Amino acid sequence: MTMTLRLFAADDDNPFNAYGWSIDLESGSPDLTIDAPAESFPVSSVEVTLDPWTSWSAEFSPALTDPGLSGASLADLWTDGDTLIASEGDDILRLTEFDDQATGGYGNDLIDGRGGDDWLRGGADDDVVYGGEGNDRIEGLDGYDALYGGPGDDIINAGDGAKDTVYGGPGKDVLSDSHAYVFDAELGPTNIDHITKFYEHQKWTGASVIRLDRDIFGALKAGKLKGKFLDIGDRKADDRNDYLVYHEKKGALYYDADGSRKHYDPIKFLILDNHPQLSRKDFFVFDDS
Fold it and tell me: What is the pLDDT of residues 146-160, one digit of tens each?
């Protein structure tokens, strides 16, 4: 069993000069006593990492005042179904392999669901949320969030949609209310996502964008999509450069690696449930290699 707790105390005069304490307990370790300053201090960050396979308990004397965590407190056993809730500060919440819940508070939080079918909520500011393995439910809420579904059939709602970025990952995901939707996982019949409502550039100010990873969509050039590479029609790539084919009546988007169906069949990877009128302006191709 391993439990690690870190408290990072803010320095009001120099926020980059934070100090803190760390506890790392292994199986069979004796009780630990850590001397901290007697006066109260603002906590700028709390990080908890837990090994869920063995029960544990911890106790502070005197007790911490508002440590920024609730639900799965330091006196509880960390078991299937517990909840972590961040408070103020830039917190790091790492969950277990079970079905857990976590909610960010104020501050730019990092939430890592790891395994299990989790319910993760970002909070008030600019958060990064990783669902990990399992069929997760992820909500960004306020702020400019980056939401990663990971393997599994996830439901990801970015929240206010203000410059949020959603990465569905492998699996059949349901995505909504984001500014950018990123597709960077291997295509196939088990990886077809839904976007519940896509705000196309032809109709909306502050529209959404579909971001395509060139490692997956290798026939496309990095940058803004050229109009000749997008065919709006009936799932038929009619010439040698129809790499993206959009069937508007069904809201289905396909990728054709050779642009002509001569050597490859188009692969469906996305269904846009509101059947928007897509154009080249709704796409961007990026290359991180």
Answer: 999 999 999 999 987
Q: pTM higher than 0.85 for the full model?
A: no
Phi, psi of 3 (to 5 degrees): -135, 125
Residues 6 or more apart whose CB falls under 8 angstroms from that of 168 comprise 149, 154, 156, 175, 181, 182, 183, 185, 193
Amino acid, res. 258:
D
Tell me the domain boundaries of the chain. Answer: 1-178
User: What DSSP designation does 155 have?
Assistant: E
Is the dihedral angle over the CA atoms 227, 233, 239, 241 positive or is it negative? positive
71-95 per-position pLDDT tens digit: 333 323 334 445 666 666 677 777 7
Q: How far apart are CA 101 and CA 138, in angstroms?
A: 10
DSSP label at residue 225: P
Convert 35-63 to b/e letters by CB count within 10 Å (16 or more is b).
eeeeeeeebbbbbbbbbbeeebeeeeeee
Of the given ranges (91-95, 189-193, 212-216, 234-238), which has the lowest mean pLDDT? Answer: 234-238
Residue whose C-alpha is closest to residue 120's, from 158, 75, 77, 69: 158
Strand order of the β-sheet with 3-9 is 19-25, 3-9, 43-50, 92-94, 110-112, 128-130, 146-148, 165-167, 180-183, 209-213, 283-286, 223-224
